[in-house]
């Protein structure tokens, strides 16, 4: 079968977990727009205290999704 290809993917979970929050968000933004809060975070703008919990939740979600190849 000449038109059949096998692809093997591997994720280094340890290295992925060692990325800073900013690196995680920057990598996510390479693929997707992100939220207004994550855009502000990457630009170094001031994040309101009420937005910090949402930002942390988004970063945790992005970190998990970037490491999931399924």
Features:
mainly alpha, single chain, 70 residues
Descriptive notes:
- It is a single chain.
- With 70 residues, the chain is an all-alpha fold.
- It has one domain (13-66).
- Helices cover 60% and strands 0% of the residues.
- It has helices at residues 13-17, 21-31, 36-43, 49-66.
- The mean pLDDT is 94.
User: How much helix, percentage-wise, in residues?
Assistant: 55-70%
Return the string of H and E elements: HHHH
The N- to C-terminal Cα distance equals: 25 Å
- Give the tally of structural domains: 1
What is the typical, i.e. mean, pLDDT? 94
Instruction: Report Rg.
Output: 16 Å
Strand share of the residues? under 5%
Largest sheet: none
Uncertain regions spanning at least 5 consecutive residues:
none
Task: Determine the number of helices (DSSP H or I, runs of at least 4 residues).
Answer: 4
> Looking at the structure, what is the overall shape?
elongated
Quaternary class: single chain
Q: What is the structural class?
A: mainly alpha
Tally of strands: 0
Question: Any chance you could write out the topology, listing elements then pairs?
Answer:
Elements: H1 13-17, H2 21-31, H3 36-43, H4 49-66
Helix pairs in contact: 2-3, 2-4
Give a quick precis of the structure.
Helices cover 60% and strands 0% of the residues. The protein has 70 residues and is mainly alpha-helical.
């Amino acid at each position: 079968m000449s038109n059949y290809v096998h692809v093997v993917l591997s994720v280094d979970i340890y290295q992925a977990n060692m990325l800073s929050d900013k690196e995680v968000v920057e990598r996510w933004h390479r693929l997707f727009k992100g939220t207004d809060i994550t855009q502000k975070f990457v630009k170094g703008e001031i994040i309101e205290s009420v937005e910090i919990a949402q930002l942390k939740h988004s970063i945790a979600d992005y970190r998990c999704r970037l490491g999931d190849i399924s």
